[in-house]
UniProtKB/TrEMBL annotation:
This is Flagellar biosynthetic protein FlhB. Required for formation of the rod structure in the basal body of the flagellar apparatus. Together with FliI and FliH, may constitute the export apparatus of flagellin. It is a multi-pass membrane protein. Coiled coil: none annotated. It comes from Salsuginibacillus halophilus. The chain crosses the membrane at residues 43-63, 97-122, 143-171, 191-216.
Length: 360
């Protein structure tokens, strides 16, 4: 009894790598090895690199907009007609400034996902799951090993980002302290430069930290989707027992067998037909065969294909209803003809050889 229980426990232990089907099923549910840090770092890196190139345009645009506000709107009378017009114009101008940055951020997020999981569409991942509202499961997630790892990662990132940011600000402290002596434009460009430098440095830092995080997430994902020996057996039984899979496999095997058989038709000496229901291709090599061999046979549609292929390759076709039916029913492809049909086949081959001599 104890031995039986031990075997059951061993069969339920998840020790086997996930099968291709299990991987496809988990991918359809949106469960893949992915680090959110990769997405975050890619977004920050692309946005701040873009800002380095775009900051002058943003600054100029903002100054122009501020000048327009103070030179035009300040003289307007605030009424029910002018106030919506002011807000509408400011909203459009602000959108023109922010839109390129938002597009770059979206591109960074998409790129981060593409690098990790490729193209993936998982509608099941966005379906509402009421099991996530279970408070007991929520507490288990909070106090799990994964939560502790995430907490340690967050503290590490906060400390490193703080150190990097403070170091860059310290290096530019003299320039920042002199902002009061500079014009508004120069001051804006100085602050934008330091901000961009901090952003790019932090993005590179997070990208470096994302590499081990992705390795950990991949390892953890592989661990989560492992299968027990019983799971492997059940999946194998299910796939083998699925009528659709069996039917597709059988259809594929039949197609391959028919294709191989059709390749032998041009090598045949003669094709015997019923004429419409059966067709049997015969081959005889006196040096290597004791008796003629059936190289192809078929009924109805397959018989029609055999006759068409024989005609295309100029293989002689002879109509003999009893012989065609007898050969089709009493022998398989690759078999020698039955002994009781030796005489009929010999006469048929003699007739074919005479035709070939007359043609030549």
């Amino acid at each position: 009894m104890y031995m039986k229980l031990d075997l059951q426990f061993f069969n339920q232990e998840k020790t086997e790598k996930a099968s291709p089907k299990k991987r496809d099923d988990t991918k359809k549910k949106g469960q893949v090895a992915k680090s959110n840090d990769v997405n975050t770092s890619m977004i920050l890196l692309l946005v701040f690199l873009f800002m380095f190139l775009y900051s002058a345009v943003v600054g100029e645009y903002m100054f122009t907009m501020a000048e327009h506000v103070f030179s035009e709107y300040m003289r307007w009378e605030i009424t029910a007609q002018t106030l919506p017009a002011i807000f509408q114009e400011l909203a459009v101008e602000t959108a023109l400034v922010i839109a390129p940055i938002m597009l770059i951020a979206v591109a960074g997020g998409v790129m981060g996902n593409m690098v990790q999981v490729g193209v993936m569409f998982a509608p099941e991942a966005i379906k509402p799951k009421f099991s996530k509202l279970n408070p007991i499961k929520g507490l288990k997630r909070i106090f799990s090993a994964r939560a502790l790892v995430e907490l340690a990662k967050s503290f590490t990132k906060i400390i490193l980002v703080t150190v990097v940011s403070f170091t860059i600000i310290w290096m530019h402290a003299d320039d920042l302290l002199k902002l009061s002596r500079k014009s508004v434009t120069e001051g804006f460009m100085e602050v934008a430069y330091v901000t961009g430098l901090i952003g790019v440095a932090v993005a590179f830092l997070l990208l470096l930290l994302a590499i081990p995080d992705y390795v950990y997430q991949k390892h953890d994902h592989e661990k989560q989707i492992k299968m027990s020996k019983q799971d492997v057996k059940d999946e194998h039984k299910k796939s083998e027992g699925d009528p659709k899979i069996k039917s597709k496999r059988r259809q594929k095997q039949q197609e391959m067998a028919t294709q191989r058989m059709m390749q032998e038709v041009p090598k045949a000496d003669v094709v015997v037909t019923n004429p419409t229901h059966f067709a049997v291709a015969l081959k005889y090599d006196e040096a290597n065969m004791d008796a003629p061999v059936i190289t192809a046979k078929g009924a109805d549609h397959v018989a029609l294909r055999i006759k068409q292929r024989a005609k295309r390759h100029e293989v002689i076709t002879v109509e003999d209803k009893p012989l065609a039916r007898g050969l089709y029913e009493q022998a398989d492809i690759g078999d020698e003809i039955p002994e009781d049909m030796f005489k009929a086949v010999a006469e048929l081959l003699a007739y074919v050889y005479r035709l070939q001599k007359n043609v030549t």
